[in-house]
Specification:
CATH class of the largest domain: Mainly Beta
Mean pLDDT: 83
Distance between the termini: 42 Å
Strand order of the largest sheet: 1-2-4-7-6
Keywords: Immunoglobulin domain
CATH superfamily of the largest domain: Immunoglobulins
Protein name: Ig-like domain-containing protein
InterPro entries: Ig-like_dom, Ig-like_dom_sf, Ig-like_fold, Ig_C1-set, Ig_sub, Immunoglobulin_dom
Shape: rod-shaped
Strand content: 35-45%
Low-confidence stretches: 1-22, 227-236
Domain Ig-like: 8-118, 123-220
Length: 236
């Protein structure tokens, strides 16, 4: 097997780690990587070789970079079983590497080398609204589409008017906050006369969404001004 072939194999089967010494125990931890959508649940597993497990074996979990075992901290989002650790209602702050350790007679006998948890955060709900300055017919009307904070960074946003994609007059800004989440503001400047009933759509695609998220704005009055109503947002 070539070295390049070994990487996906390890990702699927987990990683075996052995601590040197007479009391060392082979520990199989899996998955090596886990990606979940915020709000869903994640499960990590850790096992010892069959002939090395006995009644004196205890399994502990911790998160890399944090002190103390997770098993010893009361938290109703964390469920521990004999070979597994379930993390419920995952949020972005849960991202990181989780490790297991096998203890025998109060001593660490073996360790896993970690399961990396990546949390995808959807950019929903979307907001769509006219820019506050649009109050008279002398100013070209502009709509703004705003996402919620999301992760990872890659995102696609498309504007349309009455079923036709709008490619001009678009200006988008992306920012990253202190928590590592991203947010996008996209404005669409209308250059054509606005008619009553005109439908504007902001459509957003992101890896965390099963189908694109949609925000709609329907003009209830023609210019002057850019008055309208925001219809119910559709997203998933």
């Amino acid at each position: 097997m070539m070295a390049s072939d070994a990487i996906p194999y390890l990702s699927l089967m987990g990683i075996i780690a052995t601590v040197a010494g007479d009391a060392s125990v082979k520990v199989i931890q899996y998955p090596a990587e886990l990606t979940v959508i915020q709000g869903e649940n994640g499960t990590f597993s850790c096992e010892t070789a069959r002939n090395q497990h006995n009644s004196n074996t205890e399994l502990y979990w911790w998160k890399q970079g944090e002190s103390g075992f997770l098993n010893t901290k009361p938290d109703n989002r964390k469920i521990f079983e004999s070979k597994s650790f379930h993390l419920l209602n995952v949020n972005f702050q849960d991202s990181g590497v989780y490790l297991c350790a096998v203890k025998r007679q109060e001593k660490i006998a073996g360790k896993g080398t970690g399961s990396r948890l990546t949390v995808h955060v959807p950019p929903t709900p979307l907001k769509i609204f006219p820019r506050d300055s649009e109050t008279d017919s002398s100013t070209p009307p502009t709509l703004v589409c705003e996402t919620a904070a999301f992760y990872p960074e890659d995102i696609k946003l498309i504007w349309s008017k009455d079923g036709n994609e709008v490619k001009t007059g678009i200006n988008s800004t992306k920012e990253r906050n202190s928590k590592g989440l991203y947010k996008v503001w996209s404005s669409m400047e209308e250059t054509q006369p606005v008619q009553s009933g005109a439908l504007y759509i902001c459509l957003v695609s992101h890896i965390s969404l099963r189908i694109p998220a949609v925000a709609k704005f329907t003009v209830s009055e023609p210019n002057p001004g850019f008055y309208g109503r925001m219809t119910k947002l559709s997203s998933s």
